[in-house]
Design a protein that fits this description.
By secondary structure, the protein is α/β, with parallel strands linked by helices. It contains 12 helices and 12 strands. The protein is globular, with a radius of gyration of 21 Å.
């Protein structure tokens, strides 16, 4: 049986690889403390669940859902965005529901790239960004994110020959996996860069609410309020703990929204209307649950960083996201996959190897703060015995 060559680029995935390692450790009798996957362990708010539950008893929600049937959700998303960031949004032409932001970032290259075109991606970065480019027949130019540059790409380092073949650039801040925050002046620089080189600017923005400082993190559209080149992807998975419901949306340039909608129409309709009704309740209802979640992750961050410090593993205290990006001890610095695999085998503690997010991630591991502090501290104790 013959398969498409595009699958050659998709042989490895950090989450799938660690899933196999976790399964093997569990089969060997280990109790797994899973810090490898950024899936919130917090529940969705009651008013969200109630809206979905009420929908189940309405037969009108049981059929296919086409674009016009998503109008109320698009209006809620547009209103939420305008209230939060102060940028007007047209729900008819500038909003598109998605089955999670991952679906959008993976499908957009099909609308933007021709075979052989380059996409400028962050390295390290989220795996679906790479996968979507390869599925579209594109090439990846990896922009290294280094600690000395505050994990921001140096745009002037992109070679002219690559820029001549490039059609899009993907950013994502607050950043997974490094937890870095991009300031608004950098976003303005990125917008000008993309305007100058005729690039689509994609911003994956799942952690719009999950920051710990006083100053809100910026939206890319605050640097491009006319939406000249930009599209931004949002998810209900982090702020509203609805990861399993698979609901997100895109906001941005109307031409890009229309192009992505064309791709989406060839792949699926939309998810169940009841899920959209739950998302509407989340976006329009009380936001106290969002802030409560942020405070929970703040406490977990502080407990985990302090626990690592007690065993002699110093890491920076992140200002955003649900992750700790930790530089490995010297003896493990060249093989994060071996560290992660042997750690879960020996202790049951599962983490994500930095190299799974890109070449520049080697020498690091990512810890996801998806357990209560006492479990996180237990995980650190087990790591200490391993080290």
């Amino acid at each position: 049986m013959r398969f498409a060559k595009r699958l050659d680029w998709l042989q490895s995935n950090v989450f799938a690889d660690m899933d196999r390692a976790k399964a093997a450790a569990k089969a060997a009798g280990r109790n797994i403390i899973d810090l490898s996957l950024g899936s919130s362990d917090l529940p969705a708010e009651a008013h969200v669940i109630d809206a979905i539950a009420a929908s189940l008893h309405d037969p009108a929600t049981h059929g296919y859902l086409l674009f016009n049937g998503t109008k109320a959700f698009r209006q809620a998303a547009a209103s939420w965005y305008t209230h939060k960031f102060g940028i007007p949004v047209d729900p008819e032409t500038e909003v598109l529901p998605l089955i999670g932001s991952q679906e959008g970032t993976a499908h957009l290259p099909l609308a933007v790239l021709n075979p052989g075109d380059f996409a400028l991606l962050l390295d390290p970065g989220y795996p679906s960004h790479v996968g979507g480019v390869y599925l579209a027949g594109g090439q990846v130019y990896a922009m290294p994110l280094l600690e000395k540059n505050n994990f921001l790409p140096v745009l002037e380092d992109v070679p002219d020959a690559v820029l001549a073949q490039s059609r899009m650039m993907v950013l994502s801040y607050p950043h997974n996996p490094t937890s870095a925050i991009a300031p608004l002046p950098f976003f303005k620089e990125a917008v000008a860069f993309c305007q100058r080189h005729d690039l689509v600017l994609v911003h994956d923005f799942p952690y719009a609410d999950l920051y710990f400082g006083e100053t809100p993190v910026p939206s890319i559209l605050q640097a491009d309020p006319e939406k000249t080149v930009s599209i931004e992807f949002f998810t209900m998975s982090k702020s509203y703990h609805m990861g399993g419901f698979r609901i997100g949306y895109a906001i941005g340039n109307a031409d890009l929204i229309r192009a992505l909608r064309q791709v989406k129409a060839a792949v699926d309709f939309n998810q169940y209307l009841g899920i959209l009704n739950g998302a509407i309740a989340a976006l329009t209802g009380s936001q106290m649950g969002v802030q409560k979640g942020v405070e929970i992750f703040r406490r977990r961050r502080d407990a985990f960083v302090a626990a690592l410090d007690r065993i002699g593993w110093q890491v920076p205290t992140p200002e955003a996201t649900m992750y700790i990006w930790a530089k490995l001890p010297p003896q493990w610095a060249s093989d994060s996959i071996r560290f992660s695999t042997e750690l879960v085998q020996a202790t049951g503690v599962a983490v994500s190897p930095g190299s799974g997010f890109g070449k520049s991630g080697e020498g690091y591991v990512r810890f996801a703060l998806v357990h209560e502090p006492e479990i996180l501290e237990e995980a650190v104790d087990l790591i200490a015995t391993f080290l």
